[in-house]
Amino acid sequence: MRGCRAMEGFECDQEDLEVNSIANRKPIGTNADQQQRAAAMAKSDGCEYFRRTSLFWIVSVTLAMGYFTCTVFVPEKIPFQYLGLFGSFCRYLVDNYADIMYKGWWAAWAVHAFEACVALKVCSNKGIDNMATRCLWFVQTFLFGFASLSLLIKYDPKRPKQH
Questions:
Q1: For residue 64, is it within any domain?
Q2: What b/e sequence results for 17-40 when a residue is b if at least 16 CB atoms lie within 10 Å of its CB, and e otherwise?
Q3: How many distinct structural domains can be found in the chain?
Q4: Fewer Cβ within 10 Å of end Cβ, the chain: N or C?
């Protein structure tokens, strides 16, 4: 295949341009990195399976736990009067049940920690052996709870039967 080098003094015709254009063109809609990842996943036995939880759950759980944390530890920073009925209810809880809310805050994090430990067990049961992947599941489940754990539980590795 001849190259077109008009700048170096060689003549260049339309046929050269078409051949070079076609030869150097990448397929539309494909990416080499995506193809490599897809090939690796096709060969993978599932030991590196990980899915990030949806943005909805990331935002919802982060805001809820953040609000709960502020309500328990720094309620004076929250403008309850601007939150309507919800603010009045939260103010009532802070004024009358602060100790229960504090214990509830610890209980919420304890539940998340328990779910994270369950995620490690589920990883073992489903054949996810890669330590980095298991750590990702543990951290994600600790932070976002069942929103993450449900993704792992739904995963079906479809391993062949062992005789």
A1: yes
A2: eeeeeeeeeeeeeeeeeeeeeeee
A3: 2
A4: C
